[in-house]
Amino acid sequence: MKKVLVGSALGLALALTLSISVALADENTAKNVDNGAGSENTAIAGSLDVAVIAQSNEANIGNLVVTDANTGGNTANGNTGGNVLIDADDATANATVVNKANSNVANISCGCETDTNKAVNDHNGAGSENLAAAVSVDIAAILQSNTANVGNAVITGANTGDNKANWNTGGTTTVKTGKATANAKVKTKVNKNKATIGP
């Protein structure tokens, strides 16, 4: 009797990847123009840009993988007047578990290269007092957090044994067993953050 059995299992877990981009840019102009003699003039232009990115991932992953390959357990008992052969082939059991979870990518561009801030005092009268100011303030913050709980249980078994050939007469009795191979592979990759704040 010849039996071939190959067992294999693949577990794959993936979690969300978050990617966010924010751009900030300002154009501010303050002018004192064509004011009369002896006047007091104030011009102020300002802006405040606030960008806050909050990213949070939580992954709870549980894997239970069971594989079994069996070509054993063959019996040839009580035969008379002939040859008896038990030929059990290879038994291979493979289990692979891959867990990937929690990736955050955040980009904040302040647009600083395109900011245009101008303060102008022009054509004002004699003796005048003029103040012109242009102000731009950019505030950026990135908050990232990841939590991952991963549990893996992998059980593999391979059997080519437990073959029985008893009480046979009048010929030859042969028992052959193949290779029994059990393989398990677990790969876990969790929690990756990338943040960029720049112009």
Globally, the shape reads rod-shaped
Topology, number of strands:
10
Annotation field: number of helices:
0
Q: How can the largest sheet be summarized?
A: 4 strands, parallel
Number of domains: 1
Q: State the helicity in percent bands.
A: under 10%
Query: What is the ordering of alpha helices and beta strands?
Result: EEEEEEEEEE
Beta-strand percentage? Answer: over 45%
Q: State the end-to-end CA separation.
A: 74 Å
What does this protein structure show overall?
The protein has strands at residues 5-14, 17-23, 27-33, 40-70, 84-88, 91-109, 116-122, 129-159, 173-177, 180-198. The chain has one domain (5-25, 49-125, 136-198). It is an all-beta fold. It is built from no helices and ten strands.
Entry summary:
Helices cover 0% and strands 71% of the residues. It is an all-beta fold.
Key words describing this protein structure:
rod-shaped; mainly beta; single chain; disordered N terminus; four-stranded parallel beta sheet; about 200 residues; two-stranded parallel ribbon; about 70% strand
Architecture blueprint of SSEs:
Layout (H helix, E strand, L loop, with lengths): L4 E10 L2 E7 L3 E7 L6 E31 L13 E5 L2 E19 L6 E7 L6 E31 L13 E5 L2 E19 L1
Parallel strand pairs: 1-6, 2-6, 3-7, 4-8, 5-9, 6-10
